[in-house]
From TrEMBL, chain A:
InterPro entries: ABC_transp_permease. It is a multi-pass membrane protein. The keyword Transmembrane helix applies. This is ABC transporter permease. It comes from Bradyrhizobium iriomotense.
UniProtKB/TrEMBL annotation, chain B:
Keywords: Signal. Residues 35-317 form the ABC transporter substrate-binding protein PnrA-like domain. Residues 1-31 form the signal peptide. It comes from Bradyrhizobium iriomotense. This is BMP family ABC transporter substrate-binding protein.
From TrEMBL, chain C:
The chain crosses the membrane at residues 6-32, 44-63, 69-90, 97-115, 142-164, 195-217, 223-239, 246-266, 272-291. This is ABC transporter permease. Keywords: Cell membrane, Membrane, Transmembrane, Transmembrane helix. Signal peptide: none annotated. The keyword Membrane applies. It is found in: Cell membrane. Pfam families: BPD_transp_2 (PF02653).
């Protein structure tokens, strides 16, 4: 691929709003942006209801338990938010490069490398005040994950290697590196049947938001998503990225350094996923081990596409998917549905939301680009 | 079976006994029926590890007054904490069985601390005095059954070369490999066990490749320690090798090639736990046992097992069941020539040193890292 | 060797045997995806198709007693999923990569959902043909026990290569992939061409799945694929949309997958996680060496979203 490859118009059709330069239009169309996905969601739930009805379950029970398990009680809300928080960060790993027309699907790898480097930072600084260690962990996570995705971006710009594939291959490689280190040089001899690194120490954990069981990772995610939104839509840098994403030639004419843009965006994207890894270590596991490869990176891709690569929209979509996975347990226990029903539902929702892309510009006054 | 007679009153007494260690005098509010939550790390029909637990849970479902709720494929992240809380908050579960090793620390410990009146029984963990008193860990000395498998394998193998497809070099797995090898060398002092680690608990293609590579090395009897032994059993049998099963009885998959196997017996243990609770006994926080305690069992011998092998295996099995046989008895050297258990030292099953095993005994071809 | 061991020869033999055993699903998926991508669409959902194919093949083989009926069912299931992909993608402004990810989830989820009762039963498997009759070495004979589907896959590669170049439909697919305007100008419906190409691609990927469950490793369970479908899609780009290169790439990938266990069996034990990742490291390395920023990938269909 040449640098021409950076011209993505079709690559990420879902970034239509990003490619629209008009500020007003974007706001004018906001009703459409709620109405259409909402209708798609209802459609998907209806189809899923029919699907479970085929297996002799009552769809009304299904909806009730889904609501109860995801949003029905304060506990359910906390369950949902806890599950949503890593997804916000990993979704950014796909959504940010999408502004440039790149399809990065390797957030899982950046998460693992981020977790490893955050843990290394914490272990290297043992004895320092917790705040210092926590800041070092954030830096470690962001830099580790950032460099990992930047590798994909760099390979694309300088070697012409397709970033979608390289980022995917790097997931498997990251997992192998993690397992290799965790079962080898970084292994805590006391971690018997679950090879792990040494613990970062209870005092260095970042803990929960007061009054809740939701860890601070949610706040990290919210800040990152809002910052990303401001960066993309309200700064010169973001404008340049969107121009480059829309048309590489135009970007060159206005003198944008496309290479620099791509590397920076990839670094930020990987940094977000790396931060998710850091949070998993500092708020949940307390160390690095193979448990970190729980698929948050892959679900993040889904979140990003459902949010049409808009950093702000990622927040509600992540909460929605967090809710689905939170309610999955209740579906298993009350309705006897297998765990895979969550996957089926996610797939159906995804299909509906994507198909509904065709409706934009036909309901409202926003004319979609062809 | 007199489970029918476990009345609500009995259960209340039992629950009071349960909470003794935590908050004396505070009785947890039991619903009309007691709810028990089971959490599996994989699919509960995996023909292996998780299915063995699900069979144990199924045994509980038959007991009146008990309600069993189950959730499968729960990852070893904060998802399991939320699943536990959800079972507590939404299903009023009062006894929880998180059945995967990785659930123990920090996840289950955290939940046990948060819900001190409820009982947590974890499979595989190593409970210590520092852990909450309302939590416990149980596990079976399945290496006893592997030892029997090893004896049978040692007699059956013509080449004296045995194979072991393993997931990861962790103590529980190494202990099985070592017990299998020690058993085999009882039958054939020259027997060797070649081990291949696949790197994870469920990797069918890697497991099949490992099986083929082992057989290419002239190995004619194989066993494994992965979550689902089906792949190894079927592929080995197709190439004419003999197999010893693991987790569940897989003889139906390869009736001619299946020699015997090391099986869990959770169907016996879980009702026993419930009985203990109902009778007001406290379940020890650190609960272990093998053939004697009926936590593990040995699959019935296949037709290819010789009379000599049966006799020797039955003899050792009887001694293990009686509780007067020690598998890890010095002198034992590892496969690098270092003495790991000195002559005269007997490491009985309860010995905590065995839970830290990080070596492969003489006769095993392979390395722990 | 008297004791039946072939020592270090295990490694090349295992790589050779692995190339044959492990490569078939890669081969079918990548050839199928090759057809789809040549028409100007990318279907990332073939991972889901592969898993769904594996499940339905096993199920039908179990119920009907005929593994070949299972293979057919897998193909039909794959074609249906392909039709779904093509149908959604033909709507305006719908992104084919995203639809692929959606169908990956949907296919995998559906296969797991429907496949729960199929994990335990044993279904009739596909037979193997013994090509090693000439050899006295059992290891060689074992490596040469080849399933006819591998041979079909190997034959399919040159046929496709030839068909893309010389047949009418090969030309049509390529035209749709290079320039949809040109195809329209010739009076053909681009959407229809792509629908067919995606369905054929799905058909082949489904058959690739049936190989997994009915021949090697030869049973249905949820860990069966472990990403082979998505890797095969990556292989197509790696193979520059050339069916013959898809064949070599699949063989190389299969061989590399056998490397880790084989090295351990001869005593190379350290770093087994890294050896197990060999296929991925190898692919990335070859891509880094062979790609160039100076020119567009030769053979890349111009309409393909991933290369534009």
């Amino acid at each position: 691929m040449t640098t021409e490859a950076a011209d993505p118009v079709g690559a990420v059709g879902a970034v239509a709003p990003a490619a629209e330069p008009g500020f007003l239009q974007r706001h004018g169309a906001s009703i459409e942006y709620i109405l259409i996905p909402g209708a798609a969601l209802v459609g998907a739930l209806a189809v899923f209801g029919i699907f479970v009805a085929l297996f002799g379950k009552n769809p009304l029970d299904l909806y009730f338990y889904m609501y109860q398990g995801a949003f029905g009680t304060w506990f359910s809300w906390q369950n949902t938010l806890t599950r949503a928080s890593p997804l916000i960060l990993t979704a950014l790993c796909t959504a940010l490069p999408a502004q440039l027309g790149m399809v990065i699907i390797g957030g899982e790898g950046a998460l693992l490398i981020g977790a490893l480097s955050a843990t290394s930072a914490a272990l290297a600084l043992q004895g320092a005040p917790p705040l210092v260690i926590q800041i070092a962990m954030v830096c470690g996570g962001v830099i580790g994950g950032g460099l990992w995705i930047m590798l994909s971006g760099g390979l694309r710009q300088y070697r012409g290697v397709n970033e979608t594939i390289s980022s995917l291959l790097l997931v498997y490689i990251a997992l192998a590196i993690l397992n290799h280190l965790v079962e080898g040089v970084m292994r805590d001899p006391a971690s018997l049947n679950k090879p792990s690194t040494r613990e970062i120490g209870a005092a260095n954990m970042i803990g929960s938001i007061p009054g809740t069981d939701v860890h601070w990772g949610l706040v990290f995610g919210l800040i990152a998503a809002i910052t990303a939104y401001i960066l993309i839509y309200h700064t010169v840098f973001g404008f340049a990225a969107r121009v480059a994403g829309g048309n590489i030639r135009a970007a060159k004419i206005v003198g944008l350094g496309v290479n620099k843009l791509i590397l920076t965006i990839c670094f930020l994207a990987g940094g977000a996923a790396g931060l998710a890894g850091m949070v998993e270590v500092a708020a949940v596991q307390g160390r690095t081990n193979a448990n970190l490869a729980a698929g948050y990176g892959f679900t993040g891709i889904l979140v990003a596409f459902l949010a049409r690569q808009n950093p702000l929209a990622i927040i509600p979509v992540a909460i929605l998917l967090g809710g689905i996975s939170a309610s999955g347990g209740l579906l298993q226990r009350r309705l006897g549905l297998p765990d895979a029903s969550v996957l089926v539902l996610q797939g159906i929702i995804f299909v509906f939301v994507l198909a509904s892309d065709a409706l934009y510009g036909r309901v409202g006054f926003l004319k979609g680009k062809s | 079976m007199d489970f029918g007679r476990i009345s609500r009153r009995h259960l209340l007494q039992g629950s009071a006994a349960l909470s003794l260690g935590a908050a004396v005098g505070v009785r947890p509010a039991f619903a009309a029926e007691t709810t028990i939550g089971f959490i599996y790390v994989g699919s509960r029909d995996d023909y292996g590890y998780n299915q063995a637990h699900a069979q144990g849970a199924a045994a509980l479902k038959k007991i009146p007054g008990l309600k069993v709720v189950e959730e499968e494929k729960v990852p070893e992240t904060d998802a399991v904490e939320k699943t536990i809380e959800s079972m507590i908050n939404l299903d009023s579960a009062t006894l929880l069985f998180p059945t995967s090793f990785g659930y123990y620390n920090p996840h289950m410990i955290k939940m046990a601390t948060k819900y001190p009146k409820l009982r947590f029984e974890h499979c595989g963990g190593l409970w210590t005095d520092k852990d909450p008193k309302n939590a416990g860990s149980y596990f079976g000395y399945i290496d006893e059954a592997q030892y029997i498998s090893g004896i049978v394998a040692g007699y059956t193998s013509k080449s004296g070369k045995l194979g072991f497809v393993a997931a990861k070099p962790i103590p529980q797995v190494l202990r099985n490999i070592n017990a299998f090898t020690l058993g085999a060398r009882l039958a054939n002092p020259k027997a060797t066990t070649q081990v291949i680690f696949t790197g994870d608990w469920s990797m069918p293609v890697k497991e099949a490749e490992a099986t083929n590579s082992l057989i290419d090395q002239g190995i004619d009897v194989l066993t494994c320690h992965v979550d689902g032994p089906k792949t190894m059993v079927e592929n080995a049998a197709r190439r004419g090798a003999m197999v010893c099963g693991y987790h569940c009885n897989q003889s139906a998959l390869a009736p001619k090639a299946y020699l015997t196997g090391a099986e869990w017996n959770w169907e016996a243990l879980y009702p026993k736990f419930v009985k203990m609770i109902a009778a007001g006994q406290e379940i020890p926080n650190f609960y272990r046992g093998g053939l004697k305690e009926e936590i593990v069992k040995v699959s019935p011998y296949g037709e290819a097992v010789s009379a000599e092998a049966r006799k020797h295996a039955d003899d050792i099995k009887a001694k293990l069941t009686a509780g007067n046989y020690v598998i890890f008895k010095g002198p034992i050297t590892d496969n690098k020539g270092k003495t790991v258990i000195a002559a005269g030292t007997e490491r009985g099953q309860q010995d905590p040193e065995l839970e830290k095993m990080d070596y492969l005994v003489e006769g095993v071809i392979g390395a722990t890292s | 060797m008297a004791d039946g061991s072939i020592g270090l020869w295990t490694v090349p033999l295992a790589v050779f045997g692995g190339a044959i055993r492990v490569s078939t699903p890669f081969l079918f998926v990548s050839l199928g995806e090759c057809i789809t991508e040549r028409s100007g669409r990318i279907n990332l959902g073939l991972e889901g198709t592969l898993v769904m194919g594996a499940m339905s093949a096993y199920g039908i083989s179990y119920l009907s007693g005929s593994p070949w009926l299972g293979v057919l069912a897998a193909g039909v299931t794959g074609a249906l999923l392909g039709a779904l992909h093509a149908g959604i993608c033909s709507l305006p402004r719908v992104n084919d990569i995203a639809v692929g990810i959606a169908l990956m989830l949907f296919g995998t989820g559906l296969a797991f959902y429907l496949g729960k009762p199929l994990i335990e039963p044993t279904a009739p498997r596909l037979p193997a043909i013994d090509f090693g009759w000439w050899s006295d070495i059992p290891q060689v004979r074992a490596a040469l026990r080849i399933n006819v589907m591998f041979l079909i896959g190997v034959a399919l590669a040159p046929i496709l290569y030839w068909a893309f170049r010389t047949t009418r439909w090969g030309l049509l697919i390529r035209t749709a992939g290079e320039s949809s305007d040109a195809a329209r100008a010739m009076g053909h419906s681009v959407l229809l061409i792509r629908l067919r190409a995606t369905m054929v691609g799905g058909f082949l990927a489904g058959i690739g799945g049936s190989f997994l469950s009915l021949f090697y490793p030869g049973s249905w369970n949820e860990g069966l694929s472990s990403g082979q479908g998505i890797t095969a899609v990556a292989l197509v780009i790696f193979a520059r949309w050339d069916p013959m290169l898809c064949l070599w790439a699949s063989l190389a990938f299969g061989g590399a997958a056998a490397l880790g266990p084989a090295l351990q069996s001869v005593g190379v034990t350290s770093g087994y996680h890294l050896f197990n990742a060999a296929p991925y490291i190898l692919t990335l390395a070859i891509m880094i060496i062979t790609c160039s920023p100076k020119r567009t990938l030769t053979g890349a269909p111009a309409e393909l979203s991933i290369t534009r």
